Amino acid sequence: MESTTFIEHVPLISFGPTLLMNLVTLVVLFLILRKFFFEKIRNFMIAREQTIKDSFDNADHVNKLADEKLKEYRDQLAEIDAKGREVIRESKQRADARAQEIVEAADRKAGEMIIQAEKEVERVKLRAVEDMREQIASLAILAAEKILERELDHSRQAAIIDGILAQAGNSQWKH
Fold it and tell me: What sections of the chain are H helices per DSSP?
């Protein structure tokens, strides 16, 4: 058995009332979609585009503000660092000046102490010389009394003492 199929030849587009009805339906559908749907989609797309643009603008603005703040903070840190160095430098200068004052005061005090000690040594030396003169005078009188075996009067005793002291002052004593 042979099978034969019959394919009818039907045109793809047929010009008739169906085509006209399809065109009217398409135009009506387009107008309805345009009125209710396309405008809303268009408005949504424009709003979305504006939102995205605003987000990028806002992000750029925030980045600029962040860069400015970062620059301000860096400037402040540099200023604080400079102030810190200045404070350290001034403190060091004050400490050096104070150390110099202390050294000068110690030098003055040491000088005063040396002068005081020299005066004390001079006073002790004068006192020792005076004591020595008195002892020499006493010994001289005692020796003179022993030699003469008599007492002398005060005026003559003073003259003898002065003579002995003058001779003793001119000679060097050895210890």
Answer: 17-33, 39-148, 154-170
pLDDT tens-digit readout, 10-38: 666 667 788 889 899 999 999 888 888 88
The token pair at 142 is 């005692």
The residue that leads in pLDDT, 2 or 62, is 62
Residues in the chain: 175
Q: Strand, helix or coil at 139?
A: helix
By the 8 A CB rule, do 151 and 145 touch? yes
Sign of CA dihedral 149, 152, 156, 157: positive
Q: Is the pTM of this model over 0.70?
A: no
133 contacts: CB under 8 Å, gap ≥ 6? 165, 168
* CA 47, 48, 49, 52 torsion-angle sign: positive
CA separation for the pair 175, 164 (Å, rounded): 19
The residues, any chain, with a CB within 8 Å of residue 168's CB and separated by 6 or more, are 133, 136
